[in-house]
Each structure stands twice: as structure tokens, then as C-alpha cells.
Amino acid sequence: MAVSSLSLSLASSTLSKRLNLPHLNNQPRLALFNIITCCRGTDIYNEGRRDCKRRPMLLGVGALALSLFPASSLLAEEVPERYDAFVDKSDGYSYYYPSDWIDFDFRGHDSAFKDRYLQLQNVRVSFIPTDKSDVHELGPMEEVVSNLVRHVYATPMQVGNIFDMQERTTDGKNYYTFEYALTSRNFSRAAFATIAVANGRYYTLIVGANERRWRRVRNQMKVVADSFKVLDI
Asked: Which residue from 30, 31, 94, 108 puts its CA 20 to 30 A from 15's CA?
């Protein structure tokens, strides 16, 4: 995996409105955020550990570079305030995560970020091979989600409850996103999960927290879940 960073200059009033940067006019103003991009190679892998580097992406007034990096530039335009973007080009997916979260190793997952102080607040992505080409081929959303929550995600000591489920289509790709909680005698965790199928892979993003904090962080977690996209590789 090799790491790439992108610098993008965006100009003029039309784009500034799309980016919600008021009163740019003729004065150059810069917006700074982070975007992590990953590409496959052999020089950065260390015993299978992902080592993507964070690089600042700069948006300012200048010549357009959209034609050079269309996919990453589109992501750059859409990144909400207080979030950063993670883009894994080699494995074919991207998502947003809170800017103050840090990356960490989560066994069996391809990427993961967590709150600096509340480690149970985290997001992680995994994928497995599949012969399916679309999430619809897994079955009706209600059946798929019910089976995942109650028989895959929940352990024998946990009870799975489903609060909501939604289907969306983005750039021709279909996704199931659902909200659920896993409860045991001493602990309960709530989460959103988004699943998709592409590139011969079954992708799963899960972002969650301790259920006692769920009301406070639910909207933040929903942004992460809804941001998940699969990319063609």
C-alpha cells in the first residue's frame, strides 16, 4: 500500500457557495481539513498492519484541479464541518469520521477510528469475499438486517433490538443502513451499520457507542454511517 495526499485549489463564487464559504469574493480564504488516502503497495505494509498517513488538504482560491482528482475532489467538497474523510482506493471504499478521532488497530477490520477518550465510540470497516454483485442479492432488507443483528452481531448472551432501517442508492450503488442495540445483563451498546456489495466484496461499516451516551452522539454517528461509499477498483 502506498500513500498519496492531494492538494486541491477551488476557485470563485459558485464553488464557494457549494462549500458554504461565505464572502470569498476576491479575498483568498483557506479551509483546512484532513483526508486520508490509501493505495496498495508493498513498502508500507508492516506484518499486515495498515499504515495510512494523514495529510492536510487545502481548499483555497486558485486554479481548478478537479479534473486531475475527480473522486477525491468530490469527497473534499462534501466533507462536513468537524469531520475528516478516509478514502481507501485499493480496497474500494470511503467514509467520514469525527476529526478528533484517532486511527487504531481493530482485529479483523480493514480500518478503524475511535474517540481519543471514550474508546467504545468508534467506527470500523471490514469486508469478506462474495459472489454477489449487489446488496439486494442478499435478500429483502428486513430479513437481512434481522438476521445480522440477532444471529451474527449478537452473542448468545446478548439480545439484539432493531430501531430503524433504511435503504439508499448513491452513484448507482445500493446500501442498507440500520440502527440497533445489543444488550446483555451488564452492558448495552448501540450502533449504526451500513452494508454494501461491490468489487466481489461484502462491505460492513459499524459505528457505535455505549447506549448510555447514544442520545448525545446519535446524530454524529449517523453522519458517519450515511457517508459510507464503495468505490470501483
From this structure: 94
Q: Which of 57, 56, 61, 7 is nearest to 29 (CA)?
A: 61
pLDDT digits (tens, 9 = 90+) for 209-232: 999 999 999 999 999 999 999 999
Return d(Cα 66, Cα 77) in angstroms, integer.
Answer: 10
Does residue 2 contact residue 40 with C-beta atoms inside 8 Å?
Answer: yes
Tell me, rounded to whole angstroms, the distance of Cα 129 from its chain centroid: 19
CA-based radius of gyration for the chain = 19
CA-CA-CA-CA dihedral for 103, 117, 106, 47, to nearest 10: 50
| DSSP one-letter code for 211 | G
The three-class DSSP label of residue 219 is helix
pTM over 0.85: no
Q: What is the pLDDT of residue 108?
A: 81
Residue/partner pairs of 159-166 with CB below 8 Å, 24 or more apart:
159/183, 159/184, 165/141
What is the Cα–Cα distance from 132 to 207, expressed in whole angstroms? 24
The per-residue pLDDT for range 183-209, each reduced to its tens digit, is 998 889 999 999 999 999 999 999 999
Tell me the mean pLDDT in the region 12-33.
Answer: 40
CA distances from 222 to 3, 171, 197, 231 (A): 28, 19, 20, 20
Q: Around Cβ 175, how many Cβ atoms within 10 Å?
A: 21
Collect all residues with Cβ–Cβ distance below 8 Å to 151 and sequence separation of at least 6.
none
